């Protein structure tokens, strides 16, 4: 009769346990049938709306006791070629170590931790994936990872649209410029609403306005221009951090969120100051 190795049972238990955590947060999950290194595809959603971002999860089950904080966590070894594929993925890839006896897990994110040249040169070798007790895998950290994927996707989409817009400007293609400007505008509008900078009707949220006002009051800048931009950027970063499970923002996304917001909040005052300055200089 066919036999089922214990490794298969442990692997199945681990994948099911990790999948249930994503499901409990309201995300759609699919077990990967054509397995090329990932066990789960997580289609994330926010406020019952499906996201354009995705996560891939590789689950490694273990019967080793991971509950003792004095013991080192198991290290898994993965082919360098697989790690390079994960590192280059447009979607976020997460590796989860799951202790099936104690029902606890830990996660690692391969992207950003390995030198791509070294990975490429040692494709046939193996790379150790190490886990830290500072990165337990549970509902809270899964929510953090979901937001990390959402931010990563928004930033990449913005960078791509900005690059295409510059190409269109160099080619003097008005149609393409309008097209990519529309992508940038709608992306920033939607992301602002996601992180509670703005409301669904595109008005600024009370939380964001309070953060801007506090930033202006506390500013030590000597010019209105500097005080306005600093207060806006600080408010963007703080509002995002408070509403996306402790994640921060990449510089490109933060700057392109702050620029139009600063204009919307302080534009009139800055223009009046500029006009006043210009008048003073002409009178001199």
Structure explained in plain terms:
The strands form two sheets. Strands 1-2-3-5-6-8 form a six-stranded mixed sheet. A two-stranded antiparallel ribbon has the order 4-7. The chain has helices at residues 6-24, 80-88, 116-121, 139-170, 174-194, 206-218, 224-243, 251-283; strands spanning 28-31, 40-46, 49-62, 76-79, 92-99, 104-108, 126-129, 136-137. By secondary structure, the chain is an alpha+beta fold. The chain contains eight helices and eight strands, in the order H-E-E-E-E-H-E-E-H-E-E-H-H-H-H-H.
SS strand fraction? 15-25%
Mean model confidence by pLDDT: 90
* Regions with little confidence, pLDDT below 50 for 5+ residues: 277-284
Number of strands: 8
Helix content: 40-55%
Structural class: alpha+beta
Note the total helix count. Answer: 8
Protein traits:
single chain; alpha+beta; 17% strand; elongated
């Amino acid at each position: 009769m066919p036999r089922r190795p214990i490794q298969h049972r442990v692997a199945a238990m681990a994948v099911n346990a990790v999948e249930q955590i994503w499901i409990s947060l309201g995300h759609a999950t699919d077990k990967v049938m054509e397995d090329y290194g990932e066990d789960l595809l997580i289609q994330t959603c926010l406020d019952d709306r499906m996201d354009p971002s995705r996560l891939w999860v590789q689950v490694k089950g273990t019967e080793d006791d991971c509950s003792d904080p004095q013991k080192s966590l198991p290290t898994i070894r993965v082919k360098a070629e697989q790690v390079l594929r994960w590192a280059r993925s447009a979607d976020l890839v997460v590796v989860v170590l799951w202790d099936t006896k104690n029902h606890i897990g830990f996660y690692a994110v391969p992207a950003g931790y390995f030198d791509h040249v070294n990975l490429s040169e040692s494709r046939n070798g193996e790379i150790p994936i190490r886990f830290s007790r500072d990165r337990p895998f549970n509902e809270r950290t899964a929510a953090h990872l979901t937001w990390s994927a959402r931010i990563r996707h928004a930033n990449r989409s913005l960078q791509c649209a900005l690059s295409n817009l510059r190409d269109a400007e160099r080619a003097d293609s008005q149609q393409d410029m309008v097209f990519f400007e529309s992508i940038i505008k709608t992306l920033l509008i939607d992301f602002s609403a996601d992180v509670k900078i703005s409301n669904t009707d595109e008005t600024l949220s009370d939380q964001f306005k309070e953060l801007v006002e506090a930033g202006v009051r506390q500013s030590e800048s000597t010019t209105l221009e500097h005080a306005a931009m600093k207060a806006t950027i600080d408010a963007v970063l703080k509002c995002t951090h408070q509403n996306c499970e402790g994640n921060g923002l990449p510089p490109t996304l933060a700057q392109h969120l702050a620029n139009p917001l600063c204009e919307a909040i302080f534009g009139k005052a800055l223009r009046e100051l500029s006009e006043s300055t210009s008048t003073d200089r002409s009178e001199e």
